[in-house]
Write a structure and sequence with these properties.
alpha+beta; globular
Length: 332
């Protein structure tokens, strides 16, 4: 009887262990959250039953209050109207990263070009529009991020200098949400804001690596996927010229990316630049800079920056699409 009793206990333990094992191996279900932010849409996917949307919205509100030139009472808008402001850690993080990339690109990436962008009617202040070269010359006198300094949480600049971090802020917002998720011990996620994204780990619900799409450059405002690639523990941002551009009297297409040396839009055959980096803030800024630099200059730049992976989509002389993958940008 004692032997049978022990067998029964053993059988019960085995069944219990199998049930627990089966329970532990249950496929995680992703939470998928979406909403509006920074004038575009965001989406976040992570394997947890906890709804973090209130926390996300709170973080987005804080970032906007610090960095949005679309808000008149934001810190950056107050700085642009020469008010005395103590900036927060969001501003400091973006400022320091921008300064680093400004130096690395020899001024091609320059957050002080914003007023010139507005003058061409590409920016936040769409009431402005360029009328003649005199306007450009007057605005360009205040361009140069080397003239702007951050000291003890205060920005020092010329009164006529206008700051705008729109070419890096979306990427920064992606990183803030990613860092928040990691602070909650969530190691597998995808965060995307207006096409800029960051992934960590895997898509546990599908038990696969994260798959993301690159948009096909189209001038008809429609959206379609050009190619799908796999990302892991990386961030990617894309800068395209096929949605924001101007055409002159001779039919030349000029991108919304302003040449920081001349103040004029870039005439380019590059339609799209995608950059993969460790964080999305870096990818976002370099995607903008690489549009302005052009393919040959980027090739030379990447020899000193193997940490950046780049993918160009451009028009050749026959007006057909060509692609170029650099530094090991994934083929699929």
């Amino acid at each position: 009887m004692r032997y049978l009793y022990l067998c029964a206990i053993s059988l019960a333990l085995v069944i219990s262990c199998k049930q627990k094992s089966k329970h532990n191996l249950k496929t995680p279900i992703n939470t998928k959250l979406a909403g509006s932010v920074f004038g575009t849409r965001y989406s976040v996917i992570y394997p947890s039953e906890i709804d973090y949307k209130p926390q996300f919205d709170s973080l987005f509100t804080a970032i906007n209050a610090s960095l949005s030139t679309y808000l008149k009472d934001s810190d950056i808008s107050k700085i642009n109207t020469n008010q005395d402001v103590i900036v927060d850690h969001h501003f400091e993080q973006v400022f320091k990263a921008s300064k680093s990339i400004y130096k690395a690109t020899n001024g091609v990436f320059d957050p002080t070009i914003g007023d010139v962008v507005n003058a061409w009617n590409f920016g936040a202040d769409n009431r402005k529009f360029i009328s003649d070269s005199t306007t450009i010359d007057s605005l360009m006198r205040f361009v140069g991020f080397n003239k702007v300094h951050l000291n003890q949480s205060k920005v020092k600049k010329e009164s006529g200098t206008y700051l705008e971090f729109n070419a890096i802020a979306k990427g920064y917002g992606v990183d803030v949400i990613g860092d928040f998720l990691e602070s909650k011990n969530i190691e597998n996620y995808l965060v995307e804001i207006g096409g800029e994204l960051r992934v960590r780990g895997r898509n546990l619900e599908k038990d696969k690596a994260w798959k993301v799409g690159l948009d096909e450059p189209r001038f008809d405002s429609e959206q379609s996927i050009y190619k799908v690639i796999t990302l892991s523990d990386e961030a990617m941002a894309t800068s395209g010229t096929y949605r924001k551009f101007k055409i002159d009297a001779n039919g030349n297409r000029y991108a919304h990316i302003i040449n920081t040396a001349t103040g004029y839009p870039s005439k380019t055959n590059v339609l799209s630049v995608s950059v993969i980096a460790e964080n999305c803030m870096t990818a976002d800024a370099y995607a903008t800079a690489f549009q302005a630099m052009g393919i040959e200059s980027v090739k030379a730049f990447l020899k000193e920056h193997p940490e950046l992976k780049v993918f160009f989509i451009f028009e050749n002389e026959a007006n057909t699409l060509e692609t170029l993958a650099l530094n090991g940008f994934p083929e699929s």
